[in-house]
Here is the input.
Amino acid sequence: MKEESIERAKVLIESLPYMQTFRHKTVVIKYGGHAMVDENLKKQFALDVILMKHIGINPVIVHGGGPQINLLLDRLQIKPSYVQGMRVTDGETMDVVEMVLVGKVNKEIVGNINHCGGRAVGLSGRDGDLVCAEKLQVSKKTDVAAMENAPPELIDLGRVGRVTRINAEILRTLEREDFIPVIAPVGVGADGQAFNINADLVAGAIAAELKAAKLILLTDVEGVKDRQGELIHSLLRDDIETLIDKETIVGGMIPKVRCCGEALAGGVTKAHIIDGRVEHAILLEMFTREGVGTEIV
Here is the structure.
């Protein structure tokens, strides 16, 4: 028993330099995947961000909610449609997206944090024009167009948006009052209408605007892997496109690493892609020498 207590004390001492380094710094966390649906992991996540806040770190949470959106669409007998991995979002689907992300998922995360003793406030990108957006333009180069040197065919994704500006004053106000912001990735266009935006991209844009010390993306994989399936512990931003060209980084990992690269270019100090299925993954990344997942610098 005494030996176990000593080991716990050693862990705390090991964590001290990291706590001192990140005190008064901002850490933006993209919360998604299995960590959002497993009841045990949901509670651990809430406790992790509360601990960060109590030791002087400013966590900002941006969450996803794709599976929850699909569940309600299925109940309403609305068949989801995807193009290049992005959800086609017509007016009816946008209503469902906003209802689920802002009205259900966001409030559940806020409730979990507050129930565990934290002080969280839920926002969407429409609150205070936090996330300004415009329609995302996606094109498809057809074989005919390529032969005729014609412009690529534009694909209409509906109310799918891209971030144009982050108005972070509301986040700075909440930070001064010791609240934890929890943000649903719904943006607002110049016409006042809502846009559905990828949560990774919103998290990256907010991290860049706040010049965050860290951007952490929680995923359902260990991190970025090489062609032999081994975890890449550290990755240079300048190597991202080379690894994509070599097909070392493929599939859904491509937008995640590019998001991290853009955040670093915007002033974020470090970005991390970590496995949210691991208990206390955020704390392991923040406060241990080894860390977890892939660090991008």
